[in-house]
Hints:
With 408 residues, this protein is mainly β. The protein has an 18-stranded mixed β-sheet that branches.
Amino acid sequence: MLVRFFLVSLFSLSWGGLKAQESTKPLIAPIAGGLQFKFNESGSQYLKMNIVTQTWFRGIENNPGTAVNGDPQQWTLDAGLRRMRIQIYGEMSPRFLLMLQMGTNNQSFASGGSVSASDSAGAGKRPPFFFHDAYGQFNVIPEKDPAGKKDKFFSLAVGTGLHSWNGVSRLTNASCITLLTADSPIFNWPTVEVSDQFTRQFGLFAKGHIYKIAYRVSINKPFMTSFLPKAGGPAVDNNRGNQVSYNGYFSWQFKDREQTTTAFYAGSYYGKKKILNVGVGFMHNPRGTMTQPVKGQFESHNLTTLGLDVFYDMPIGNPSKEMVFTFYSVWYRYNFGPDYLRTTGVMNPGTKDPSFTGIRALEGFGNRKILMGTGQIWYAHTAFMLPKFSDKIRLQPYVAYSYKELQA
């Protein structure tokens, strides 16, 4: 099965900052990264807003035996809204931050809406709009000194709510606004849309720096899963044990220190920073999956993921050309229980063609593919920002590769 993306568009709306002054009218000044309201002269009290929309236009080579809207199709032209976000966060005091992010995902002409799939009006309409993040954070020891200029040796912030301060890897904490590739590989989120809400869970988190080590840890309560395993079959997602999950990610930052106001790591800084990080992380959920070795006998299994990664993002060559080289590589070790295997198809337009009599793919219909399972995955991508030739357009070609060795 081959999926070819022939056009991906990403639009990020940014406005000027609005600065209130007592003796003059509000001023609008150019600000990168969104709409920002400053409530004091230093900007330490602020409210910031970002809006991002990513649309996809694709040509999909379907798996054998696929029908789209009842019509057998080998190839399908597709259009859809991969993701849309409204992100609002701010600090009303130097110690407290509030984060809200809402939006929708994966709406296409065939799926992703709130209309029933059996409704002749179409299942792709009126997608659900929901909160992705909703948490409060208290800065116990701020990252900067009182003057806001020097990084402290040790910093600590704690928070609680529906959050995305994940463990495992940098890519598990990726920013959808600054993804380097057209999309994430998805297997970087071990429990995506199973025991989490679009990679988020309710819980407690702590984050900060210790010298050059950036750390983030969390204790979360996974969403309930209750799939029933077949007798003698593979492990499935069933966390009937109702245990909390433990998460952590630690990276040594050899060059510049990265900003950690929000949970999301940038895919590239486009030459604004010099970054070389090596990281290690984990996610552990006791009794997160289940098997049925013999009929009527159920056994729970721990769900554990380990990650080891490296990230390099560096300006190169003549500074006036603003060229940037980026490289990221990660190794994942997954243990979901015996023979666990998961498939997925992002914005999949395909369904089963009942008239097909040939050999069907293991993955299923449409653009479904084997996503992850018990075993290991290696993933890497690299990109090069071409020399600047315009103030409005920049080109950054990239290549990505993944290798999967799974037990099934």
